[in-house]
Amino acid sequence: MKNMLLNSGACVALIAGLLSVPAAHAGRSCDTVKLTPQTAGRAMTLAGKTLTSLNESGQKVVLLARAGQDLRKYGVQYSHAGIAYQVPDAQGGQTWRVLHKLNECGTASSSIYRQGLGEFFLDDLWRFEAAWLAPTPQVQQQLLALLQTPGATGLNHKPYSTVSYAWGKKYQQSNQWAIETLAASMEARIATRGEAQAWLQSAGYQPAALTIGPMTRLGGRVGAANVAFDDHPPEKRFSDRIETVTVDSVFAWLTRAQLALPGKPVLVTLP
Prior knowledge:
Elements: H1 8-18, E1 24-25, H2 37-57, E2 61-67, E3 80-88, E4 94-104, E5 110-115, H3 117-121, E6 127-133, H4 137-147, H5 174-186, H6 193-202, E7 208-211, H7 214-223, H8 234-237, E8 241-244, H9 247-256, E9 266-269
Antiparallel strand pairs: 1-4, 2-3, 2-6, 3-4, 4-5, 6-9, 7-8
Helix pairs in contact: 1-2, 4-5, 5-6
């Protein structure tokens, strides 16, 4: 697929091909559900509205979230985030790209993708809503410098679990990669995941603590290759406390640590 935002005219012509794209997802289930033309059209509309919102904001880098799964029972609104940033286009203007980590469905592996807004939302979304939060100008500048270098993918760890332990190194989920990459942009000396996590702890990041009982853990581990709990400390795991990186916890921390501009995340919704 092209790394660009698909306009409404191109959307109709490309939908057939897009529906057969190999599955790579994050923040949603890996059920074999084919996108319908109607769903794809709504996704492209959401991408277009998000593009307008970002362009009008005057920002250069934001943390961009989508709602791929209904996680409200865990107190989580958004399932997946990527780092969206503005780049020059071929016509002398500006466009947006999203760098994010995706799980290869049906496996415990993952890769980093650089996509347009259309591709980012072209998924089986549970709710057609986007949310973005702009870091402070200084953080944006440092992130943008890293995103335009090969070092942007340097902290990717391919073994994947959707609920990887926030301070563990055995697995890495998508939101965890994003926040560890943000940490790496803040200090040039950070070259490993351990160093990034140490910086996050010193900066006051607090992961979400999800309550997941033993039967749910067992069902998830047996039924999906991309779900594992064995990296969580036993004393927390056996008390049903699963500490992982969520979009909501990252948004809250960025605001609390004054690493984001004041105010709530900007919402982009469809009727």
